[in-house]
What we know:
Blueprint: H1 8-18, E1 22-28, E2 32-42, E3 45-51
Antiparallel strand pairs: 1-2, 2-3
Amino acid sequence: MGEGTGWGCCISYQIVHKHGGDLRCLSQPDRGTEFAIEILTRQSDRVEMKAS
């Protein structure tokens, strides 16, 4: 912890956004952080993946 470059979320967002998706982050003190990545699987459908 504390040894990264600080670019991880920025690069991830750019990749997901470039592919027509969305990356969201919800952080709550003492409860943790949730990342949601939404990407197109077909032209008209969206799939959401969550990791916490």
